[in-house]
Amino acid sequence: MRLSRLPVATQKEAPADAEIVSHQLMLRAGLIRKLAAGIYTWLPMGLRVVRKVERIVREEMDAAGGLELIMPSVQPGKLWRESGRWDFYGPELLRFTDRHDREFCYGPTHEEVITDIARRELRSYRQLPVTFYQIQTKFRDEIRPRFGVMRAREFVMKDAYSFHLDKASLDETYQVMYRAYSAVFERTGLKFRAVEADSGAIGGEVSHEFHVLADSGEDAIAFSNASDYAANVEAAPVPRPSGERAAAGDAMQKVATPGAQSIAEVSDMLSVPPERCLKTLFVCGDNDDVVALVLRGDHELNAIKAAKITGVADPLKMAGAAQVRSAAGAAPGSVGPVGLSCRIYADHAAALASDFVCGANEDGFHFKSVNWDRDLPEPETADLRNARAGDPSPDGQGTLEIARGIEVGHIFKLETKYSEAMQATVLDTGGKSVAMPMGCYGIGVTRVVAAAIEQNHDERGIIWPAAIAPYQIMIVPLNLPKSARVREASEKLYERLQQKGYEVLFDDRDARPGVKFADCDLLGIPVRLVIAERGIDAGTIECKSRREPDPEHIAADELDAYLDSRLGSGSS
RNA sequence: CGGGGCAUAGCGCAGCCUGGUAGCGCGUCUGCUUUGGGAGCAGAAGGUCGGGGGUUCGAAUCCCUCUGCCCCGACCA
Q1: Which stretches does DSSP call E strand in A198-338?
Q2: Strand A290-296 vs strand A278-284: parallel, antiparallel, or unpaired?
């Protein structure tokens, strides 16, 4: 590709509404353009990256036995009524009617359609197991699209669905997909981690998310420093601590804490460390009541764990100030578990505290030297908090560290949720009709592109891993208009490298060197080859890897070896 | 959905308070000079000031309204 023929110019400044670095760089480098909130055009340079990712995904899906198909993006509402999701899905589902006033939606996901396919095509256990997949544009009408294509409304996703005779077969395919996903992200050249995740509303079983590691990631993931264990923090269990509660000391005492609302303020005022200040959170119960959750001041409530407690509303909803006052008789900053009549659950660690501080349920007052069993009944205990760095790993090996991640893949077992609702059955070996257990496996293709940039960039621009770079090599001739030798040498090199199968950008513009270097860095092309009079005289080519600080001057006949070492063996 | 903000040239912004026919930087085009890290000089093109309505002799500017976009919040004890 000759840069002079690429009409999309790079930009020095990013639009003011681009918040995160990947969004800014994608705009500046001319990868994408916004059409509307959360809706983007992929320009030629950006599309190439999307295609690279798609190709890796497709190859690994095929290798794992997946069968590619494409389902419609527009889906009849009727199907969604069958599965029960028409009413359940909410405003994220973009709905509309056709001219005959029939209901339709733009697919945010394709369980209904694939289950419909399966129920029509699959009759016998002999056809199973089978995995279908597609790479397709989806639409979710997010409340608040942001971060460019990272959290867009329209996006490209690979979704796969597997169908089975029984649970054992599903488990087996799940493992196959787990390995396929690992292979996909391995090949992209990104640093990633597979983590245990909350499976959400469906099924109790553990699912796995694949995260691209990046400091800007929206998810926190916990992983052991001594084993393979890794989990989304929201799903990481915190085992009950083994220690004994220390003996109670002084008698409970009420102290004035005027103006002290937060744990930090109370802790400061009373000179008691946060871990011995217990906080009490009121959440909505199942039926109009409230439930009190007690945690150590230095711990964070885990909403997903809390919502799983019987009697607590799911999804979790914090009680309003009025509800708190009627339950505790004080404002949120001065409430505690002593004397409450509602149900109380204490996090394991909070239940282990002794001589602790908590709100006195009277505005502006706290209790000191409070002890379970002495000053208030032993609480029911539960795992309520987020895991944090330094906690013991749930698998018993090592301690946890926390990293940030961007969720780019998720695999989970649907079991028979859809096959039962939509009567997707096959005859088993005994001739009996059984609903097929299903698996569901997604990869956010366009999000992978953004995540790759979040993980790989510097102040000059993008640093593509070679496997997903839009082009592998940029030829930068200097003083092209005036030097026939430079023109000849660079044209020849351009020709030769393309012949070898490399994807090459040729900066044949009449621009100053600084402009060319800056664009090359911004675009993140892995290898830059500078052609100038000097090098021609010396018989060398200046080769620079985007990842390395300094160029190397390589003899012309060593070039292939250099490229091999930086890009892997040639061809695309 | 609640709260806040913004909308002026392709991009980044000023002008608005205090009404008088729109400006800066980058980019684009032409010419000359320049050519190893976003060059210099000279010239040029490009704007229904988001839409509609109102006030006024006169509105980018004041008022009303609509639309679009952005930010914050939806763990706080």
Answers
A1: 207-213, 219-224, 230-232, 253-256, 278-284, 290-296
A2: antiparallel
Cβ count near A28 (within 10 Å): 20
Report chain B positions within 7 A of protein CB atoms: 1, 10-13, 25-28, 34-39, 68-77
- Report if CB A394 to strand B is under 7 Å: no
Residues of chain A (426-465) having a beta carbon less than 7 angstroms from strand B: 460
Tens place of pLDDT for every residue, chain A, 572 residues? 999 999 888 998 888 888 889 999 999 999 998 888 888 999 999 999 999 999 999 999 999 999 999 999 999 999 999 999 888 888 888 888 888 999 999 999 999 999 999 999 999 999 999 999 999 999 988 877 888 899 888 999 999 999 999 999 999 999 999 999 999 999 999 999 999 887 654 445 678 999 999 988 888 899 999 998 999 888 888 888 888 889 898 899 999 988 777 888 888 889 999 899 999 988 888 877 888 999 998 888 888 888 888 888 877 777 877 788 888 888 888 889 998 888 899 999 999 999 999 999 988 899 999 999 999 999 999 999 989 888 999 888 999 999 999 999 999 999 999 999 999 999 999 999 999 999 999 999 999 999 999 999 999 999 999 999 999 999 999 999 899 999 999 999 999 999 999 999 999 999 999 999 999 999 999 999 999 999 999 999 999 999 999 999 999 999 999 999 999 854 44
Q: Which of residues 147-186 of A touch strand B (CB under 7 A)?
A: 147
Cβ within 8 Å of residue A45, ≥6 positions away = A6, A8, A29, A30, A31, A470, A523
Distance CA A84, CA A91 (A): 15
**For the purposes of burial, counting CB atoms within 10 Å of the CB of A66, is it exposed (0-12), middle (13-18) or buried (19 or more)?**
buried
Strand B close to A479 by CB, under 7 A: yes
Q: What is the ipTM of this complex?
A: 0.89
Q: Which of residues 319-378 of A touch strand B (CB under 7 A)?
A: 319, 324, 332-335, 359
The Cα–Cα gap between A39 and A332 comes to 41
Taking the C-alpha atoms of residue A515 and residue A521, their distance in angstroms, rounded to an integer, is: 10
Handedness of CA A95, A97, A103, A106 (dihedral sign): negative
Q: Whole-model pTM?
A: 0.91
Would you say A278 and A358 are in contact if contact means Cβ atoms under 8 Å apart?
yes
Residue A515's nearest nucleotide, by CA–C1', is B38
Helix locations, A343-425, DSSP H: 348-351, 417-421
In DSSP terms, A403 is beta-bridged to A221
CA distances from A182 to A32, A50, A513 (A): 28, 19, 41
Which nucleotide comes closest to A330 if you measure CA to C1'?
Answer: B77
How far is Cα A197 from Cα A410, in angstroms, rounded to an integer? 9
Four-point Cα dihedral A295, A301, A304, A305, nearest 10 = -20
In this structure, the strands spanning A207-213 and A380-382 are: unpaired
Q: Answer yes or no: is A262 CB < 7 A from strand B.
A: yes
**Residues facing A372 on adjacent strands:** A376
Tell me how far apart the alpha carbons of residues A38 and A495 are, in angstroms, rounded to a whole number.
Answer: 40
**H/E element holding A486?**
helix A484-499
